[in-house]
Amino acid sequence: MDIVILLEEGLLLIRRENPPYQGSYALPGGFVEVGERVEDAARREAKEETGMDLEDLRLVGVFSDPRRDPRGHVVSICFLACGRGKPKAGSDACATGIFPLDRLPPLAFDHEEIIREALKVRRDQVNVVRGPPLAPDANISALPKEP
Fold first, then answer.
1. Which CATH superfamily hosts domain 2-127?
2. Residue 124: what pLDDT?
């Protein structure tokens, strides 16, 4: 799971402390623990690696290219969020950095692609879910309940 964290000053990145891509800049993220919701994992990893709390967490997409991680076939569920707090490196990050979107450093993994997709979601957020418009009085509670 990876998180694109936007701040007023730019994009928050971490510098990786461990291989693969040790010393490279990357998006904050990590693995989901057994029994953990991915949204909760995103909040936990952001706090552990950057010291930041997340607001307005939005799904960007799923990135599943088998070659995206040299350790093996690792699927990433990616989020976009606004960060709150003061960045401070921790956990797997040896440093944090805030970069203007037009001056990003070289990035680990497929994080450049993830950032591009996240910015499209941000730009198009009104049109993310397509389908017929809902009437103002749509009765969503009348939908069948999950078993």
1. Nucleoside Triphosphate Pyrophosphohydrolase (3.90.79.10)
2. 76
